[in-house]
Amino acid sequence: MKTFITEDFLLYNDTAKAIYHGTAKHLPIIDYHNHLDPQEILEDKNYRNLTEIWLAGDHYKWRAMRANGISEDYITGDKSDYEKFMAWAKTIPNLIGNPLYHWTHLELLNYFGIDEVLNEKTAPAIWEEANRKLATPELSVRSILKKEQVTFVGTTDDPTDDLAAHKKLAEEGYESTVSPSFRPDKGLGIEKDEFLSWVEKLEAAAGFAIEDYAAFLKALSDRVDYFEAHGCRSSDHGISVLFYEETDKQQAGAVFRKRLDGEELSAAEIDQFKTYTLLELAKLYTEKGWVMQLHINALRNTNTKMFRRIGADAGFDSIGDLLLADKLVGLLDAMDVKDQLPRTVLYSLNSRDNNILAAMAGNYQNDEVPGKVQAGTAWWFNDHIDGMEAHMKTLANIGLISNFVGMLTDSRSFLSFSRHEYFRRILCNLLGTWVEEGKMPNDPELLEKYVKNICYYNAEQFFHVKAQIPTA
């Protein structure tokens, strides 16, 4: 059976069709936040089969398979790649209404030219055809980036990483910019069991002993310099529980000393350390001209049994519901009052917070760049049709959607660039609907400007991307 993916998929009026096919469809991609492996770009990897490129690290799909009663052996266990693919194919017919259903069929069509619905009957033939094409140069990693006109890839990297692949790609002069993002979550997580071992890694990366808080901050600063030298444009912070506790360097240093000495820390002390450290990092980001991304309100690793069995990032995270407005304004204002608030993107995994973030962003704008503080795109559990539409309507209602920096994949799969197409279709349909309903003028030039800027050019300016569309 042929798929439902037509050229006018998700485009429900003539205006939407015109602006998508005339403008959005042809724009290159800036994917400023993802979890792609830069080593695979360096190697120009060809994946062995659909399971390796589709299922190996995709906890979205793992969650869906578990919800369909699939045994863990077929998800993260030791079943063969073909058996795991067949388990995914068995799950697909039950996914109608889930964006995974749309993404799966977009990817089959866009990358493999397979215009069939995936199910247990069609799966064997799809497996053979897709694997045959994956073995060709046309579907190597770099060929995928070229096909999708990806000008910028923002990976996610620990401050202790050596960035070897980024360095080699830059030396090679690879046309797509593969930029590291500074993700110091382990350095702020002073309460975590892994904190002291991470400090040892930071010592090794910095090349000197960290015996006090001043040395800790110096090591972080040196690593910021290192990332800057290797093309970094942004930091990224995963903050499950937002914090703000007024403090000073002396108190933060005392907390750090207590942790080194193995003493228990109070909740207030933990927040004091995190607050001062993040403010110091924000100062560095501002000096470098980086973007600071804050991913808030994710409730991580909720299933203790499965965490012990599989580890983190395995599909057992959820939406947090902790309040964030007061502490967020404390952080942003403490940065801003010292002129140390970098360009910032705020994300919350709880869509309840859309209005809060959109309003908060409006408090800290200036003439440095339009939309200096952004309410970031619908993230993770929200990157579906309803979530994207609700988020963009909130941006328009409370702020300026015209300055929105658009979509990202937040993915570990090189096939996920189809999510940009998904977003662009939804955006064009929303704008087209507003035109058809008489809520904005039917002005082709204005519509084209909105679409070009939201889909590409706002991000190009915001992240200081020097665009070069890949040709090889």
Report on this model:
The protein is an alpha/beta fold. Helices cover 49% and strands 8% of the residues. It has 20 helices and ten strands. The strands form three sheets. It has a five-stranded parallel beta sheet, covered by helices on one side. Strands 1-2-3 form a three-stranded parallel beta sheet. A two-stranded antiparallel ribbon has the order 7-8. β9 (343-348), α17 and β10 (373-375) form a beta-alpha-beta unit. It is globular.
The number of E-state strands comes to 10
Mean pLDDT: 96
Q: Give the helix/strand class.
A: alpha/beta
Q: Which sheet architecture does the biggest sheet show?
A: 5 strands, parallel
Strand order of the largest sheet: 4-5-6-9-10
If you compute it from the alpha carbons, what radius of gyration comes out, rounded to the nearest whole angstrom? 23 Å
Distance between the termini: 35 Å
Number of helices: 20
What is the ordering of alpha helices and beta strands?
Answer: HEHHHHHHHEHEEHHHEHHEEHEHEHEHHH
Low-pLDDT runs:
none
List the helices and strands and how they pair.
Blueprint: H1 14-22, E1 29-31, H2 38-43, H3 50-54, H4 59-67, H5 81-91, H6 99-112, H7 123-134, H8 141-147, E2 150-154, H9 164-172, E3 177-179, E4 181-182, H10 185-188, H11 195-206, H12 213-229, E5 234-239, H13 249-260, H14 267-288, E6 291-296, E7 298-299, H15 304-310, E8 318-319, H16 325-336, E9 343-348, H17 354-362, E10 373-375, H18 385-398, H19 418-436, H20 444-462
Helix pairs in contact: 1-19, 11-12, 12-14, 13-14, 17-18, 18-19
